[in-house]
Amino acid sequence: MKRESPISAVPLASEVQAGNAPLTGVRVLDLSAYIAGPYGCTLLADQGADVIKIEPPTGDNLRKYPSTLADESRAFLGVNRGKRGLVLDLKQPAALAVLRRLVESADVLVHNFRPSVPARLGIAYEQLREVNPRLIYCAVTGYGETGPNKDKAGYDQVLQTMTGMCAMQGKTDGPPEILYGSVVDYYAASLVAAGVSSALFARERSGQGQYVGVSLLRSALAMQSARLIWADDEPRDVGRDMRSGGITGIHPTREGYLYISANTPHFWRALCEKTGLAALAADTRYDSVRKRADHRDDIVPQLHAALQAHSAREWETIFGDAVPCAAARTVEDMFDDPQVEAEAMMQHYTYPGAGGDRGYRGFRQPIKFVAPGETSPAAVAAAPRAAPAFGQHSDEVLRDAGLSDDDITALRVTQAVQ
After folding, report:
1. For residues 66 and 99, is the Cβ–Cβ distance under 8 A?
2. Cβ distance 29 to 136 under 8 Å?
3. Residue 320 contacts residue 331 (beta carbons within 8 Å)
């Protein structure tokens, strides 16, 4: 049952963030840290949701990660765009009361505490459902809600190693290798956004919220669905490598490296013709991906010799649409890439820091929405917002919740709020 209060109700998110994006009017309380939960909430913010990042007094630990960017973590800025920031010490009753007040009219709450922690803090699903039965409650865990590992801390590369990803990534007869880039975390973030969106859709029909569980273990296994097939009569040591056998891959050129994909008959013929190796395309020994894999020691040296005629960027032009390929670039190249610019994937942000506001460029909105009757996604795009500075919007969010300046001052005196 909703708690009665003499303080006015929290305004709807639509009163805070205007726009026509699909999730405009949805308010999300983001209590998570690191990448999986926070970026899942960022994906919701990209779609118009009003996301309030709620940090403990020690801050999201991602803020403290090594960074060559002065005064802030590059990772934190990239993972937490589009949010407002509030600092609450949930170990203090006054701060927990503030959170419960925010929950009353929130649509979604996301956290990544271990399963045993929320009840101790007073924020378990059963506890907050009494405050708001319409709440979508999303818990991001390492291993899930049950089982022998449920209370273990889960991290991206721990789950990579556990689930066979590192063993598969390593070279034959070599040690396991990590896939850098937090791939499990980012995939889990996508599941957070998808699961929450599905639960919001279900609520439109039922009127009730629900629990949404996302784990790094499930995410790491889901990413390997093409490998996770084991026929009843197969041995344990069955080949599960999805790589194409040496032709499709990264190859050296006269200058730089080039990735080439030539699995289909059409692309294989085009590759051979444009590199002057038409005889290979006509040879029946090489007329399938499997055959080319078997004969890679015959084909690859000839391909490498042919690729020395041009640089990787020149081969991109030569191959054009005929052969899927890409010259190996750095991340820095993407900021001014013509295709990235054409799709408006980068945004200039202003971030408050020591000595005043600073500007930086960063990614924005991975999903394109175009409203009915419009011709441009700009009509529904939410106004871009940088990641919040520590506690940047605490007073703003508390005033939205109906707290007076005296209430806020009292909370700051006890450091329940920062």
Report:
1. no
2. no
3. no
